[in-house]
Amino acid sequence: MAPEPGTRARQRERTRRVLLREARRLFAEHGYGGVGLARIVADSAVTKGALYHHFEGKPDLFRAVLEEVQAEVADAVARAADAHQDPWERLTTGCRAFLTASTAPDVRRIMLMDGPAVLGWSTWRALDEAASARHLTEALTDLVRAGVLRPQPIAPLAHLLSGAMNEAALWLAEADGPADLEDVWAALSRMLESQR
Amino acid sequence: MAPEPGTRARQRERTRRVLLREARRLFAEHGYGGVGLARIVADSAVTKGALYHHFEGKPDLFRAVLEEVQAEVADAVARAADAHQDPWERLTTGCRAFLTASTAPDVRRIMLMDGPAVLGWSTWRALDEAASARHLTEALTDLVRAGVLRPQPIAPLAHLLSGAMNEAALWLAEADGPADLEDVWAALSRMLESQR
DNA sequence: CCTATTGACATACCGATGGTATGCCAATAG
DNA sequence: CTATTGGCATACCATCGGTATGTCAATAGG
């Protein structure tokens, strides 16, 4: 019988998505080093042939998963920030959104813990910059241009804040009381305010 | 002939120190996943039997190396802080010492990049707390008690500052201009000042 | 339509890796 | 002087990431 057009591309896309989904689940649960390719392809109901057809290897698969996670976090941050017009409120709500989003277990493990170690810090930084850190840099630049923040080099400040929030997210995910989030936020707010 | 007393313990200690030294060198250069036990024992001029006699496995060996690195950093921080009496100056000089010490390649790779991924964040946190973060917590507590810092929960602030400095150290190790260190320090100083 | 080609996998296999079980010999204990 | 144990070395194993090859259906070209 006549094959329906697009069968090829649809199947390819489906397999790739299943692999990404299962890999993300397993990486989030056991960590990068704690799960083997055999387990990933088994849970995806495919074989290693399929995996190596879609990805260059285990690090590349992890990178794809990481990019997906980062994209989600960045989307949440941008969405929260875009709800406001005032540059200062855009920054603060964006930071809060990042804090809450990054506390999720898979984000925490994949993006904050394994990411730098697996891909190397510079690669991880580049991906983070392309995803969510870019928003932070833009927000800070806008605030300096608007005269809200004192003129100063943006990069160091952005890294300090980014690192502070990453560590805070890791801590919050473990200490997990809602009161802790408010304490972190209070201190972070004062930090932001200090640069005003 | 009569064996000199203490031969046993001396040989044991010597083998252990060689293993730690070579493992630290290799972990720092290639990362935890980038070096195998075969290479470590070969460079140490022993066999895997010796390694597994002294350590429980590869993660345990890494943990021992990490503790050594952390102890050195903590010592540098404490030494710098102890040169001052004023609590505020103790904090600032301690932070500066941490920044410069953590920029060293082996510290950066072992303590800041691989540490959390290999041992898990909570384990890493516990070790860090026992080593250098304890000084930060103490300094902040003293400042609150002295009325220099506003009364507030210490833990969130300590984590924010620790994360900020860790990330800054990673960045400084790469951007490596001495001017960048001053920029980071200026922004960090304002952050500290903000909590005053 | 029919055929050639290619794309999306599956299968089989490889070297290297972390880890273990056992053997051996000299240093210590009695 | 003998028994024991500590400090390794040797030999071996299961599993890992990675590769080479085979297979079959979907597409492209005539």
Automatic annotation (TrEMBL), chains A, B:
It comes from the Bacteria. Residues 36-55 bind DNA. Transmembrane segments: none annotated. Keywords: DNA-binding, Transcription, Transcription regulation. Gene3D superfamilies: Tetracycline Repressor, domain 2. Residues 13-73 form the HTH tetR-type domain. GO terms for molecular function: DNA-binding transcription factor activity; transcription cis-regulatory region binding. Signal peptide: none annotated. InterPro entries: Homeodomain-like_sf (IPR009057), HTH-type_TetR-like_transc_reg (IPR050109), HTH_TetR (IPR001647), Rv0078-like_C (IPR049484), Tet_transcr_reg_TetR-rel_C_sf (IPR036271). This is AcrR family transcriptional regulator. The lineage of its organism: Bacteria, Bacillati, Actinomycetota, Actinomycetes, Streptosporangiales.
